[in-house]
Amino acid sequence: MASADTSLSVFRFPFKAMGSACEVVLAAHSEIEAQSQVQMAKTEVMRIERKYSRYISDSIVTKVNQNAGLAPVACDDETWALFQYASKLHAQSGGLFDITSGALRQAWNFKTAELPSSDKLEALRVKLGWQKVSLQNRQITLPIAGMEIDLGGFGKEYAADRAAQVLQGQGVTSGYVNLAGDMRFLGPKPSGEPWMIGIQDPRQTDQVIATLPMTSGGLATSGDYERYFELDGQRYCHVLNPLTGWPVKHWRTVSVTAPATVVAGCTSTMAMLMEEDGLAFLQATGFDFLAIDCKGKVYVRQ
Amino acid sequence: MCAKVLMLMSLLALQACSHIQPVAAWQKGNLALPEMTFDDDPLERGFKEHTYTSKEASSGGSSVGGGGCGCN
Amino acid sequence: MVHRSAEVAVAAIKQNFNLPELGIALLGAAMSLPCIMLDAQAETAPEKGTLSFKYLNYKERQQVTGQAGNSSGWTDSQSGASAYDDRVRVKATASSVLLPLNSDWSLSGTLVTDSVSGASPAYHTQALSGLKDFRRAMDTSLTRYLPNGKLALGLGYSGENDYISRAVSLLATQASEDKNTTWTAGVGFQRDLINPANQMVVGEKKRGADWLLGVTQVVSMNDIVQFNLGYYNGRGYFSDPYKIYDERPKRREHQTFQARWNHHFSELSGTSRLAYRYYTDTWGIRSHTLDTEWVQRLGSDWRITPQLRLYSQNAARFFVEVDPRIAPFPPSPLPNALHFSEDQRLSAFGAITLGLKVTRQLSLDTSMDVKVEQYGQKAAWKFTGAGSQGLAPFYARSIQVGFTHSF
Fold first, then answer.
1. Complex ipTM over 0.85
2. Angle of helix C21-30 relative to helix A261-273, nearest 10 degrees?
């Protein structure tokens, strides 16, 4: 980055995808150039959503879930690579990061403030566990009916990395992709200065608790404020521990920066799942992070 | 003089090679292997340089500094 | 899409990202995702320190010249011993440590001790006189890491009972934004003090400066080349006080050009390494060096590397050739000669080295290596033209054992 290119202007393109507010911010010589670049990035995000969302009827994830307890489902290269990645994460997190925890939505519905009965959770136990899933010959088999996989744990982050790669292929060297807070950066502002990204205060969500300067790599945040309900003064959030069936409680928010967004996202999710042990884990990764625990204490490494 | 000519020719060759596709960071797996670098065993290089300068007239090539020794 | 084996992925991450083991593992897991595009990182001090140790056992031998001009060995009819004289024997140990101080600075140090014993010829290859010497050399270097390169300041000291050398050097590297091109520039200054045991001369000095300019270029995912240009300028005492007729110029300049190419053969898990160096100096010596190696990976823990080196040089302008009429006695230099030397090192010859190195990775952080080498130097092996006549071939074998650990 030798000198600032003063003919570049920054353009912002908000859009909706994956059920959330997204945006692409990039620097280009003209709005038309920017629009065509963003269109390709949006197309890639939509492609991944259509292929991997469990809410879309002809996605591969829906197909796998419908075939639970029935038959194996063939996977293409991309899907196979994502399942391999999920396997490695499952192993690296001691079973905490588990994409079969999708079945827990049968017990936890964050629209009503109701705790599931222990019978219901016990019945679900048999449907949880990535170690039960068979991955052979590029086919995935969920052995028990009612098992559900959910790529929500790294789907948005993966899409952010892929969209950024599309933009980089178009020659974009300044800007970022933001999919509901999971971000991938393509380079600093045209002036050479970093993008100043505000981290949402987990308890006052219209306020910013910290600002991080970002120029490259990925930034992802896991928090207990995205989907939750509160009952008797206790918050129950959408990050569910597959071994206990219950939401995690120790962290209000964990933000991680890493060379790829998908790694940042999995690291922040794993830290949330590890609860008290999450801090030592974050420190051992070497990645920069900002974490706030249930008492409001802030931990940072930069 | 001959050494300079060779270097100039190499630089021209490099310039011609600028038509080659730049290699991106995530493609540099093989290049990171120790055998693909140029100085993966500095102690071996140290012994090598020292023993060859003690029995041959030539020295130098890819490094500077390094104390001399009594093998004039 | 590139399919890489696990150890190659880890090697790439370790080189491009300075992270502890867990970070490397998490990044490594993501490498299998299609084109996930990891950015090149700025160069920083290594995450881990390194401790290395190497031991060298080196032994020379040389045939003693028999009949006039005939350099085949003779046998002592009484004892049956063949006249291969053991020349120099060296036992050397080298230890080095690399310490990252923080993300921008690192410090490294090397300590080498040589114990040399044996015989060294006083002229050509004859009248071997015993020598026993002990040398200790220390080098230290401080490196500052910058966004696209680094700067290293080095200090060196080498001392033996008759020779002290002090050196300082500065090396700078600058990489392009995509890290595919790296320029290197370096300069070094040396000051030596010579006080030979035989007191032929007292308090002689030698000063030198050497310069380096180089460029390293990534040509493809499996190819990397490097070109280096070197220049040296020295003034002072270059003669060898232990040799009978030895009066060398008080100046020496040399230039070197070096080209290197490493190519990785993925399907074979092997790498070829080629290096060529051209050397020319103001004493009239020109030489060619060709170094070739093949590194073969066996499994994830072993590497085996056969090596071949070919070398050829012509004689210094003032080298006094063997006179077959009076051999083995040293010829006197010409009466009006300003400079003269009968040091075999300045004669015309070719040399071949055959080597084999085996490396074993004991863990992610530790490795061991063993290398054996056989060296032969013969006038007849000079690439083109005739070598210096009447000089006996000279052989050396060496064994090296090394160990390195990151912490």
1. yes
2. 120
